[in-house]
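Researcher: I'd like a structural prediction for the single chain below. Treat it as a standalone chain; there are no partners to consider.
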Amino acid sequence: MEEGIIKTAPDIEKAKSILKMVETTLELIDTIDSKKFASHVIKEYYEVIRELITVILLLDGYKTHGEGAHKKLIEYIEKNYAEFKVHDITLIDDLRIIRNKISYNGFFVTDDYLGRKRKDILMLIDTLRVIIYKKL
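Model: Treating it as a single chain, here is the predicted structure.
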């Protein structure tokens, strides 16, 4: 494999544990006032997507590490899972960039952006879950 991705034994227990955390994060998102806290919702959605991709790597027997690990996750699913089209990968990468702006620069997302992207984000999450449940 390439730099930043390490071959490991598949780890089903860790994958299930992360999956459980993802479910609680999705419950948390449902309780957040998305008009008032759009940035927080976007950040949490990105974390859910990142964790689901991490679960796929764990089940495939890989993990990422080091600088650019989040980008490597996105590249991995782009290369290995045809279910994800260019617009899906672009959205995930946009969410990664926005999450970094939120975390490191205090960037604020408008609730309008969230409103326009939520449906696509939820479809991505569903696609990732389907892949995972087929592997479990």
